[in-house]
């Protein structure tokens, strides 16, 4: 599974998920949820008490972040350098926010000066940024942006679905107010749970809203109680937590803790460099020009000239039993995307992908024009 997600699930995590189902309100499950909360705090590098996992995929966490922090009529600013900024803008529009965007071409990113200019012009309540833009392969720099948001009294919302665990991110130090990820990328757990955390500033805004969030399911007051984050002595039934998904999420966090976050970042960086050098040696071009802005977990390769990208991905799947993918949103037709996440981030995986790509370029149809 070398697409941009899901990634392969190791046996240890699969086995954890195959344990018997027990009631979602049993004390044993609460203990597991507490472990998950600690694991997420470590992975996110945050002390936030309001840290939990939403039942659902990355999109559920996106909606949880936006639906809770934004009220109708409020201003939202979304940084669009791929599909994720577009989707965040769409979600905010659906709940009646006044949405503005800053736009960079696919493969590009924003300077702090550009971000500050937009913050001062639109005065948003929330600013959305994708740390790992998986549709274009960009790793966005984070330094100083949280501080800028706070200067303009704005909450800083970051999507780290594609980057979390694979590239340095310090939620508290970076001044991030809302951060979320997914289970099926670097964590190598099955899709279906989405870690999320809210800063004290974010909670202040959320718990002093004038209106109720549009979603009952994603209402943070309910989720906070279910996850034991609201200080109340007992937890009340909200929804039936996906207990087996909690088992695997907990195990995947344990794997990350055992390796150590910094070791994981370093491994992803080294393996990505090895992969990128191998691609360039084959004469292929990387889509993201600036080296430091290349996402180590998802690589975008300029679609090889004269080939049909779909024939390449289909050939590699059929002949080598490997999944790689084409572009997404604005990068469709422009790139091939290869994900090397969690246990898949290894030199052995890179060698497999490079061999498959070489073979595909030899056997797929190449037009002469
Ligand atoms: N954000 C980013 C950066 C992603 O890569 C993805 C998944 N490709 C999502 C959000 C959405 O996650 P999901 O597919 O789990 O809903």
TrEMBL record:
GO molecular function: alanine-glyoxylate transaminase activity; L-serine-pyruvate transaminase activity
Source organism superkingdom: Eukaryota
A GO term from the CC aspect: peroxisome
Binding site for substrate: 337
SUPFAM superfamilies according to UniProt: PLP-dependent transferases
Catalysed reaction equations from the record: glyoxylate + L-alanine = glycine + pyruvate; L-serine + pyruvate = 3-hydroxypyruvate + L-alanine
Keywords in alphabetical order: Aminotransferase, Pyridoxal phosphate, Pyruvate, Transferase
Subunit structure: Homodimer.
Protein name: Alanine--glyoxylate aminotransferase
Record organism: Larimichthys crocea (Large yellow croaker)
């Amino acid at each position: 599974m070398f697409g941009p997600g899901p990634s392969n699930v190791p046996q240890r995590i699969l086995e954890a998920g195959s344990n018997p189902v027990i009631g979602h309100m049993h004390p044993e499950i609460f203990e597991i949820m507490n472990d998950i909360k600690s694991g997420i705090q470590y992975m996110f590098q945050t002390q936030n008490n309001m840290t939990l996992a939403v039942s659902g995929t990355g999109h559920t966490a996106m909606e949880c972040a936006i639906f809770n922090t934004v009220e109708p009529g409020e201003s939202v600013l979304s940084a669009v350098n791929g599909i994720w900024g577009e989707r965040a803008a769409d979600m905010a529009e659906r709940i009646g926010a006044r949405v503005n965007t800053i736009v960079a071409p696919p493969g590009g990113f924003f300077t702090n000066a550009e971000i500050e200019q937009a913050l001062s012009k639109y005065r948003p309540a929330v600013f959305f940024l994708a740390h790992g833009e998986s549709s274009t392969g960009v790793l966005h720099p984070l330094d100083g942006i949280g501080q800028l948001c706070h200067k303009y009294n704005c909450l800083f919302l970051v999507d780290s679905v594609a980057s979390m665990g694979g590239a340095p991110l310090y939620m508290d130090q970076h001044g991030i107010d809302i951060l979320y990820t997914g289970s099926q990328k670097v964590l190598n757990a099955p899709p279906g749970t989405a870690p999320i955390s809210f800063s004290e500033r974010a909670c202040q805004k959320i718990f002093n809203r004038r209106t109720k969030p549009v979603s009952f399911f994603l209402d943070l007051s309910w989720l906070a109680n279910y996850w034991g984050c609201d200080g109340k002595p007992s937890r009340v039934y909200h929804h039936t937590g996906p207990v087996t998904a909690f088992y695997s999420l907990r195990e995947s966090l344990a794997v990350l803790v055992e390796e150590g976050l910094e070791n994981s970042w370093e491994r992803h960086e080294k393996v990505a460099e090895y992969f990128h050098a191998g691609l360039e040696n084959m004469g292929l071009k990387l889509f993201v020009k600036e080296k430091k802005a290349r996402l180590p977990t998802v690589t975008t390769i300029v679609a090889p000239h004269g080939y049909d990208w779909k024939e390449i991905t289909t050939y590699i799947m059929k002949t080598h039993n490997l999944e790689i993918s084409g572009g997404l949103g604005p990068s469709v037709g422009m790139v091939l995307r290869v994900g090397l996440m969690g246990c898949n981030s290894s030199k052995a995986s890179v060698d497999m992908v490079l061999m498959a790509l070489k073979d595909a370029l030899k056997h797929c149809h190449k037009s002469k024009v």
